[in-house]
């Protein structure tokens, strides 16, 4: 009997090394694909290739049972397809760890728990982002200019440099320089601000 490994992640940005580290030492071959866990077994090229590679008494091996399906329904559909084809499944980790040749309560429970875990992670991530937004923080890329760069832009503007000259001198895009200068004009409230800062025209000449 030989073990044939199957590795799956949902997107190209996800890492597969942890699964490979668990499978490669014990499997004669490992098949990997980056595809949604909602796909049926027949619609997953590498899963189909792994099943075709199996010989009698070989076992399809996964690190955790949720690699076969992203939720309870999807996982059970894939397992049913595999069992109908006479494919035995070996799970290395989790409560479903062991060898399986037919559907069982422990497989159902493992898939249900995996689905619940994903929902919990998604909920916590969403709540965290909403809390950060309420506190004035947002995700994504950091600000384009830091305080030092901002001061350099404004200093050059006070010297009478144009937006494009400042952009070339600081290496900051014209659009960002324009925004920094405009924000500074807005901050200098009062009827005399324009006289106090004669170089704050936003011409891009």
TrEMBL record:
SUPFAM superfamilies: Resolvase-like (SSF53041). One of its GO terms (biological process) is DNA integration. Residues 2-136 form the Resolvase/invertase-type recombinase catalytic domain. Pfam families: Resolvase (PF00239). One of its GO terms (molecular function) is DNA strand exchange activity. Residues 124-149, 185-205 are annotated as: Disordered. Keywords: DNA integration, DNA recombination, DNA-binding. The active site is at residue 10. This is DNA invertase Pin-like site-specific DNA recombinase. It comes from Prauserella rugosa.
């Amino acid at each position: 009997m030989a073990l044939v490994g199957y590795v799956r992640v949902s997107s190209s940005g996800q890492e597969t090394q942890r699964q490979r580290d668990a499978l490669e030492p014990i499997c004669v071959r490992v098949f990997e694909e980056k595809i949604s866990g909602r796909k049926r077994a027949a619609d997953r090229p590498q899963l189909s290739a792994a099943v075709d590679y199996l010989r009698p008494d070989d076992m399809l091996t996964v690190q955790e049972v949720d690699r076969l399906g992203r939720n309870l329904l999807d996982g059970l559909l894939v397992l049913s397809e595999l069992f109908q084809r006479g494919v035995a499944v070996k799970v290395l980790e989790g409560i479903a760890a062991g060898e399986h040749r037919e559907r069982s309560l422990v497989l159902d429970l493992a898939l249900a728990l995996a689905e619940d875990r994903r929902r919990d992670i998604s909920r916590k991530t969403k709540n965290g982002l909403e809390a950060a937004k309420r506190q004035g923080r947002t995700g994504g890329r950091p600000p384009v200019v830091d305080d030092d760069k901002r001061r350099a832009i404004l200093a050059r503007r006070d010297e009478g440099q144009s937006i494009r000259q400042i952009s070339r001198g600081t290496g900051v895009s014209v659009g960002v320089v324009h925004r920094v200068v405009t924000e500074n004009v807005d901050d200098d409230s009062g009827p005399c601000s324009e006289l106090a800062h004669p170089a704050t025209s936003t011409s891009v000449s």
